[in-house]
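Narrative progress, year one. The postdoctoral researcher (J.K.) led the effort to move from monomer predictions toward full complexes, under supervision of the PI. The following entry was the first complex the group processed end to end, covering 228 residues in total.
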Amino acid sequence: DAGVIQSPRHEVTEMGQEVTLRCKPISGHDYLFWYRQTMMRGLELLIYFNNNVPIDDSGMPEDRFSAKMPNASFSTLKIQPSEPRDSAVYFCASSATYREISYEQYFGPGTRLTVT
Amino acid sequence: AQSVTQLGSHVSVSEGALVLLRCNYSSSVPPYLFWYVQYPNQGLQLLLKYTTGATLVKGINGFEAEFKKSETSFHLTKPSAHMSDAAEYFCAVSGNTGKLIFGQGTTLQVKP
């Protein structure tokens, strides 16, 4: 099993540019999560999907952020326009549900985003 | 509602000493509890989990944790710290919402 795959691993962009982060969850997992990690704010849940449907996006910081999951094997997190304060490590994670209980999440290696 | 509190944002131990990282939780449903470790520049990796059954659970790298319902605790321990244990550790609780609630993390420093 390849685990959760994220791309790119590193992204450096200029303020105002559009940034797209990509995630491929583990096959068979029905939950997908996007997190952001910074020194100041720690690990924050941005949004999560169940069976490709967004369940809770209350953690998305503002309208500049959007996430989609067009199918069970792919999700994107887009920032448009990007700002320096968006610099962080973005993690994608997935999990499987059994008897309506979600088990442990498996994290990808993260995308380190730097906005200059 | 669920919540997790990790006591101590930084813990420092000497190599060979006992490691104890504290985690208390709040949950309105029977909790599933997890400990994750994050090494520098890496994603979170599952150390161990409690779902049902035996309250003392063993994980990777010699770590274990005990679920104490009466104390609403799930502390992480390791008898003898190794330099390679230096990392950030996260406690998390899962209920029936599909998501994990993470604590703020504890950075473990291991001194030679």
